[in-house]
Amino acid sequence: MKNRRSDLDWLRVTAFGLLILYHSGMAWSGWHWHLNSTADITWLREAMRFVNRWRMPLIFLVSGGAIVLTLGLRSPGAFAVDRLRRLLLPLAFGMIVLVPPQVYAERHYAGQFAGSFLQWLPEAFRGTYPAGNLSWHHLWFIAYVLVLTFVLLPCFLWARTASGEAAQAVAARTMGRLGLHWLMALPLGASILWLAPLSSNPNGLIGDWHGLVYNGVLLLYGGFIFGTPDMLAVLNRQRWLSLGIGIACYATLYSSFFDGAVGALVLPADRPAYAVLSAVNTMAWLFTAIGFANRYLTMRPRFLGSASEAVYPFYMIHQTVTVIAVYWLLTYEVPPAEGFVIAVLATFGITWAIYAWLVQPVAFLRPLLGLKAIRPSLLAERAH
Predict the structure, then answer these.
(1) Is this structure's pTM higher than 0.90?
(2) Which of 80, 149, 215, 267 has the highest local Cβ count within 10 Å?
(3) Residue 279: in which H helix or E strand, if any?
(4) 3-state DSSP assignment of residue 134
(5) 127 has pLDDT over 70
(6) Could you give the CA distance from residue 307 to residue 309 in angstroms, rounded to a whole number?
(7) What pLDDT digit, counting tens, does each position of 217-230 carry?
(8) Alpha-carbon distance 74 to 174, whole Å?
(9) If pLDDT is split at 50, 70 and 90, which confidence band does 383 have?
(10) Are 24 and 344 in contact (CB under 8 A)?
C-alpha cells in the first residue's frame, strides 16, 4: 500500500472490532443465528440494532478506500494476482478449515448430528448450506469484495488517471459547496426499495442483487472519499452536521419502524419512506465516522500498525471461536448477560492467542489467513 492512512486504519480496526462484539452477542439478540438462546438481552439487541445500520457499510467503505491505496500505480495484472492471493486463497482456506467447526456445532446443538466432529467431517462438504453443510458463513464478505473488486476494477483504474482525479476533485468541491454529497444516499435507498424485494439468498452471492449493488456502491464511495482529499475535507468540516442528521434519522427510523420490536415493522405503503430513511441514516453515520476520524485520528501510535495487520486473520478466525464458545455457554445454560461477557472475552482472548502464537510466526499459515508471506528466516529475526 503506497501510503497508509492513519484515519483509514483506525476505522478499519474499529469496524472489525465492532463486528467481533456484534457476533459475540448474536445468540442472545433474539435474531436468528447459527446458535440461539431461548433468552434475549433486550438492551444488547437495541445496541446491536443501532450498530447494524452502518457496521457492514463502514467495512465496505473502508475496503473501497483500501482498494484505491493498494492499487496505486500497479498494473491491472499485478493487482489482480495480488487480490486473488489475498482474497481467494484465504476464502478457500476458511471454507475448508474454519467454517466446518461452526456448522458442526450448529448441527450438534440442534440435534441434527450426534457423533463427534471427526465422525461428522465426511459430511462437511456435502450440499450447500443451509440444507447442506458447505458454506462460507461470515466469510461472505471476502467473497463479495473479491467479485466486486474485479467487476468494478475499470472504475478504480479510471479514478487513478489524471482526468479521473480531476473529475473527482471537482465533484467533491461541488458536493461540499451545495451539500450534494447527501445524494449519495439515493442509490442505497433505491436498492433497498426496488432490489431487496427481488433478491434472494442474502450473503450468498447468487441471487443477492440487493447485496451486490448496495455493497458495490459502498466500495465505489470508499474509493472516491479516501482517494479525494477535497471530499475528506468536506466530511471533516461537516462532521457535527452529519452527527446531528444521523441522530435525527435513527430516532425517526426507530420510532416509526422498530420501537422495541425484534424486527422492522414496514407496511408496503411505507417502504419508500423506510428506504430513504435507512439510506440517509447509513450515510450520515458513515460521514460522521469518517469526518471525526479524519479530524482527530491522525496520530499513528505503534500498536496501530500491528492491529491493522491483525484485523484480517482476526476476522477470519473469530467466529469459529465465538460459535464454539457459545455452544458450550448455551449447553451449560450460563445466564445471558454473563454468557455474552464470557463470549466476548473468549473470542478476543483465544483469537489473539491463535494469531500471535500460530498464525503470525508460521510462514506457511500467513498467506492462508490474508497476511503477506514472509521468509522463515525473516520471521526468525523478528522473533529475536
Answers:
(1) yes
(2) 215
(3) helix 271-296
(4) strand
(5) yes
(6) 5
(7) 999 999 999 999 99
(8) 30
(9) low
(10) yes
